[in-house]
# Entry
Amino acid sequence: MDWGMENRLSQVVQPDGHCYFLPIDHGYFQGPTRCLEKPGETIEPLLPYCDALFVTRGVLRAAVNPVQSKPIILRVSGGTSVVGEDLANEEITTSIEEILRLNVAAVGVSVFVGSRYERQTLMNLAELVNACEDYGIPVMAVTAVGKELVKRDARYLALACRIAAELGARIVKTYWCDDGFDKVVNGCPVPVVMAGGPKCETEREVLEFVHDGMQKGAIGINLGRNVWQSKHPVPMARALHAIIHAKAGVAEAYELYQETMQGE
# Structure
């Protein structure tokens, strides 16, 4: 691995081998998502607990302070919306020159395996890897499922993750599943981080699936809505940080959540 690639990866994955990415890229297809109407205000109290931000270039420029910023993973795919025909119909939105200009640590692109646009989005990934490898920029593949949440089973996720890794992704972001997540991780030759997906019913439910996924081999999380849409975002972020970086169990992390919540 060349110096630039290793240096950028070390910015987003911490010395313990784990990572906590905070995504605030939802507006690129959802518009002004609840609690992200003013993303700069939303993320400010959460920054001490995350290792990197996953964000579009527009919000990066408008809402993220460039001075002493957290490392940036730049969302570079898009072109669809929740009111459009198919969320999978994405293309690359950002040039390699812009990626370099913004001095980001990594980039992220969605792939929609099994969709009508499977080949298009997989080629988006391949072409992005081709461009970014020349400059030592790691690519994170996001194994998106669009509106088809029924696809979140181990067999499908393992297929999507392995294909993304085979095409050159340095990190793969995918969903946790309760029917063999260890097989998903073990079948992927590059590190796996867990997505949050739709907001969970309770905070403890979030802590439980994150802890389970870490025990089964994930290196970290890329959780947004289950943090900044929580009634108590900072306690939630702190509890998740404890699981990711302090090896806290569910009970310990939930106790920390409650303690922090009472101190707000």
